[in-house]
């Protein structure tokens, strides 16, 4: 049996039985997951991306952030698998980038 690489998103999920959690650059708690499009694009490929669930201090979901599509394949599971191979460091980098973009979009 080959041990999963806990330094990747899917490897962490496999090893711990849950999605990884991160403290975002805004000091809030987030968990990370993967989703793929329900329908293929005009080129016949499905896109997959990261989704970050923001948690309240009461441990309840309080919003989410989504990256742009990061992987494409004619099979949605393969598209998701490619995103799942991202290192946890890269997942955190995407989270902080999404937080920064959200802050820039907030009205003054």
What is the fold's blueprint, element by element?
Layout: H1 9-16, E1 21-23, E2 29-36, E3 46-55, E4 61-66, E5 71-73, H2 76-84, H3 88-105
Antiparallel strand pairs: 1-2, 2-3, 3-4, 3-5
Based on the model shown, name its key terms.
5 strands, 108 residues, globular, alpha+beta
In short:
The chain is built from three helices and five strands; from the N terminus they run H-E-E-E-E-E-H-H.
Please provide a written account of the structure:
The protein has helices spanning 9-16, 76-84, 88-105, and strands at residues 21-23, 29-36, 46-55, 61-66, 71-73. The protein has 108 residues and is an alpha+beta fold. The chain has one domain (9-105). Strands 1, 2, 3, 4 and 5 form a five-stranded antiparallel beta sheet that branches. A hairpin with a 5-residue loop joins β1 and β2. 21% of the residues are buried. The mean pLDDT is 93.
Distance between the termini: 54 Å
Biggest sheet character: 5 strands, antiparallel
The overall average pLDDT, rounded, is 93
SS field, number of helical segments: 3
Secondary-structure element pattern, one letter each:
HEEEEEHH
What low-confidence regions span 5 or more consecutive residues with pLDDT below 50?
A: none
| CA-atom Rg in angstroms | 15 Å
Assign the structural class, choosing from mainly alpha, mainly beta, alpha/beta, alpha+beta, or little secondary structure: alpha+beta
Query: So what's the overall shape?
Result: globular
Number of strand segments: 5
Q: Which band does the percent of strand residues land in?
A: 25-35%
User: How many domain modules?
Assistant: 1
Question: Roughly how much helix do the residues carry, as a percent range?
Answer: 25-40%
């Amino acid at each position: 049996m080959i041990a999963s690489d806990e330094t990747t998103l899917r490897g962490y999920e496999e090893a711990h039985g849950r999605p990884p959690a991160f403290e975002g650059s805004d000091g809030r708690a987030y968990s990370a997951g993967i989703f793929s499009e329900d329908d293929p694009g005009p080129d016949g490929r499905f896109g997959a991306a990261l989704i970050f669930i923001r948690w309240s201090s009461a441990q309840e979901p309080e919003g989410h952030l989504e990256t742009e599509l990061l992987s494409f394949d004619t099979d949605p599971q393969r598209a998701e698998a490619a995103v799942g191979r991202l290192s946890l460091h890269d997942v955190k980098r995407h989270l902080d980038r999404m937080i920064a973009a959200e802050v820039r979009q907030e009205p003054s």
